Amino acid sequence: MTGPHYDFDLTTPRPTTIDKRRAEHKDPARLSSTTDQRLLDSRGPAEWVHSDAWRLQRIQAEFIEGFSVLAEIPRAVTVFGSARAKPGHPDYATGMALGGALARAGYAVITGGGPGIMEAANRGCSEAGGLSVGLGIELPFEQGLNPWVDLGVGFRYFFARKTMFVKYAQAFVCLPGGFGTLDELFEALVLVQTGKVTRFPVVLLGSRYWGGLVDWLRTTALDHGVISPSDVDLMTVTDDVDEVVAIVEKGFQELVAEPEHR
């Protein structure tokens, strides 16, 4: 049984639907608050009448735009990692190598569209001829999408953006990163653990960085009885880019072999 055929021409220029208002903020001080912040701030009991009800339309519009722009991308892998890694840093080089390897294996690469490891993965993918996708977010300290994004979507709401990371990916790969990367990692693990997504590999690339976290889960968290032994096996730690691609491909082949995907 062969995998599905994707009729998606990578040589055709694609629209880039970038949030222009966000991209124009050259001075972080000009962005005194974000849309997410204004949504989550506590207000008076009747505040929703004046603002929150109208925000529902904007939230709906973000989901519609994300679905419409990303619906026809080929099979893809979402890559997370620090925005702080600079070109020349080993993690940046690893991100480029990963992006290139995934592209050569026939996968699009989805990132948060920012600098650092996100840029590296987008760059590696783009230079290898793959489809490089960036899902940007309105933040006071990030200025638009990196220049290696072929197809970009700008989001105001984290929860809408997070849905796109999962919905259009066949796997997650996490390189070294901070709170944002950890947030996405554990959200993916919860989705797999609870059966919200199936056949969804989660790979941690960089054993020196991730080893301590995994050891803590296998000892402290497990000893406290807050996770099951099988939960730690929901992710794989490796230093080998080729192994990452093999894990992703194995998961994809298992997915397309399931009866509902025949």
What is the fold's blueprint, element by element?
Layout: H1 20-23, H2 35-40, H3 47-70, E1 76-80, H4 90-104, E2 108-111, H5 117-127, E3 132-137, E4 151-155, H6 158-167, E5 172-174, H7 179-193, E6 202-205, H8 207-223, H9 229-232, E7 235-238, H10 241-257
Parallel strand pairs: 1-2, 1-5, 2-3, 3-4, 5-6, 6-7
Helix pairs in contact: 4-5, 4-10
The CATH topology assignment is Rossmann fold
- Give the tally of structural domains: 1
Separate helix tally: 10
CATH architecture: 3-Layer(aba) Sandwich
Structural class label: alpha/beta
The number of strands is 7
**Which blocks of ≥5 consecutive residues have pLDDT under 50?**
1-31
Give the H and E element order. Answer: HHHEHEHEEHEHEHHEH
CATH C-level class is Alpha Beta
Biggest β-sheet description: 7 strands, parallel
Query: What distance lies between the first and last C-alpha atoms, to the nearest angstrom?
Result: 8 Å
General form: globular
How are strands sequenced across the largest beta sheet? 4-3-2-1-5-6-7
The helix content is: 40-55%
What's the rounded overall pLDDT mean? Answer: 84
Radius of gyration: 19 Å
Strand content: 5-15%
Structure description:
The chain has 10 helices and 7 strands. With 262 residues, the chain is of the alpha/beta class. The chain has one domain (36-261): Rossmann fold (3-Layer(aba) Sandwich), CATH 3.40.50. It has a 7-stranded parallel sheet, sandwiched between helices. Strand 1 (76-80), helix 4 and strand 2 (108-111) form a beta-alpha-beta unit. The protein is globular, with a radius of gyration of 19 Å. 36% of the residues are buried. Residues 1-31 have low confidence and may be disordered.
